[in-house]
User: Fold this.
Amino acid sequence: MIERYSLPEMKEIWGDYSRMHNWMQIEVLAAEAMAQLGIVPQGDLAQIKQKAQFDVDRVKEIEKITRHDVVAFLQNLAENIGEPARWLHYGMTSSDVLDTGLALQLRDAIDIIIEDTSKLLGVIKNRALEFRSTPMIGRTHGVHAEPISFGLKLAVWAFETRRNLDRLLIARETIVVGKLSGAVGSYASIDPSVEQYVCEQLGLRPAEASSQIVQRDRHAEYMSALAISASSLEKFATEIRALQKTEVMEVEEPFREGQTGSSAMPHKRNPIICERVCGCARVIRANAQVALQDMPLWHERDISHSSAERVILPDSTTLLDYMINKFCAVLEGLVVYAWRMQNNMELSQGLIFSEKVLLALIAKGNTRQEAYKLVQRNAMRAVRGEESFREGLLHDAEVGKFLTPEEVDSCFDVSVSLARIDAVFARLEQLNVKP
Assistant:
């Protein structure tokens, strides 16, 4: 067995050397398998294994003439191997090499993304536990709703990130498939055992059935997993951007000494990394759409998918790797202004406890409709600035028929609103951050 090329960084995975190195492994392993079948003489196999090498620049030089990358690559191998190179690519078609090699690239790329995502999950989990008891206002429609904790917000992100990790693992399993079944997938000129041997040596599975290519629903599923992960990052980054608005200012991206926020306004500290994450997510989502469009091809294949894949697959894996690492840095250095969270909860003059009052009135015998009218009447007075919500309730004779001042006061206790979130954190503590 040829030793698998050690896992490089994302840029190198998609480089010419790595791509051609994968091709060379496939060709040599196929010759090895055919030698076991008695097709390739052992002496020729020994020379192939000893002399197989390529030069990227030379391949590109030949390709200018052949206008075919695999043919140019095979010619360069033949220049180095000599006459036994006639056994290379025996009974195979270009897509046998291209698609099997692509599977290796996609596997190595998603392995990095899986590692990145596991790291991100650990960061989110730790920060969620750190702020599990830090109260802040929950917002729906952008409007103050009820108290939550900042840790609870992050816990939601943690479980979503774990689901993304699971999706990436499934996508990895889907994509680790090779094919060496010939021009239209019929094994007309190559024994299926060759495909089995090559795939096993490379850590892949043979496709159950293929045309000239591995079917592109696999790549669409892979790209969809990347797009969902990117969209989650955009969701998280968008929330940080919203919470960093001047009027809110509950959290802030890390801002290094000497950093400049604006060429014109020295006071500016902008959420630029989160904005960058949001922009990159749009690219990956668009690329996922391209992957879906690559699925329907003419008959046993055409190459309308090929040119698109050469862009969307390296770009999307590289972008997501970049996004995750950038967002990890944001979360690790995120500045949390707990005092501002407290101040913002007080802006509504107690309106955020309206449900507690509603339920207290219902518990005292009011219908829901009756209780709702009493609460809403006092809430609207607070909105108009006539008096605080709590004062209005205490001054309302109808409310007083059902609730004592002490019972009204008990409805305005933040700790009561957060009393049951420990159930979430018990689950979070058990959350496994590793694949």
